[in-house]
Each structure stands twice: as structure tokens, then as C-alpha cells.
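BUG: 3D viewer hangs when loading the predicted structure for this chain

Environment: internal workstation, default settings.
Expected: structure renders.
Actual: progress bar stalls at 90%.

Input used:
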Amino acid sequence: MSSGEAFDRHGHCSSFCQGAINGDHPRSGTTNEDHGAFCLGVSLGGLGCGPRGERTRLWLNPVRPYFHGAQTREQWRAFDELERHSGIGLFIETGPECSLIPDVLLSPAEARQLAAELTWLADVASGIDGPHPRIGNA
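C-alpha cells produced before the viewer hung:
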């Protein structure tokens, strides 16, 4: 088989895909144009402040890439690699427009690690906990 040969991939939504749950499209076989590049689950978000004082909203969604149609061997591998690193999508919104493409993809393990680190950093910032002194420092 040549590397340019196309293979058919039948698109299947994830169990959390809000488009499929809400009936916006079927659970499988939906065109990429009607579905979008990712299955997106329920959004959770919060407000923050950007480096110039602008309000910045962060959105977190369960995400999984979606594709329906013909792919070359290279596209198939790239999709599979993207799928291996998907789990949680972080969307950073600084203006009125919101993209349906995550700014950052985290695997479930990476998301759990980040959540633990954010919890500890919040404790440090609020004075509940602090960096521990190193052993042997004078």
C-alpha cells in the first residue's frame, strides 16, 4: 500500500458528545462539516485576568477528536496520536469569539496532575500551605 492511499474512517461520537446527546446529529456517520473536529462534553469554566488586566475566560471540556471520511495513512496516524492525547480540552477566550478547537489538549492523567498542582498552588497563594524548606539549608 502506498502512503498516499486513502482509507475510510467511520466517525463515532464519544459517550459525552453533547451534539449527539442533544440530537443535533447522529452518534455516528455525521459529516465533519456538520459535526466539527471534536466531540465536546459539558463545559466548565471560570474567569481570570490576563497580563494586561483584561478579563479572560477559561473553559474546560471533555474532548475527543472526530473524523468521518477518507484519510491517508499519515492522516490516520496523526488522528490516532491526537486521540491518544485527548481527554480534556482547555479553551482560552479573551474576546467575544469562542473557538471550537481547544487551545490545549490534556490526557486524563495530565488533567489530574494539573488539578493536583493547581490545588496545591491555590493553597500556597492563600497561605494554607507553603513551600517546604529544603533539608540541609542553613
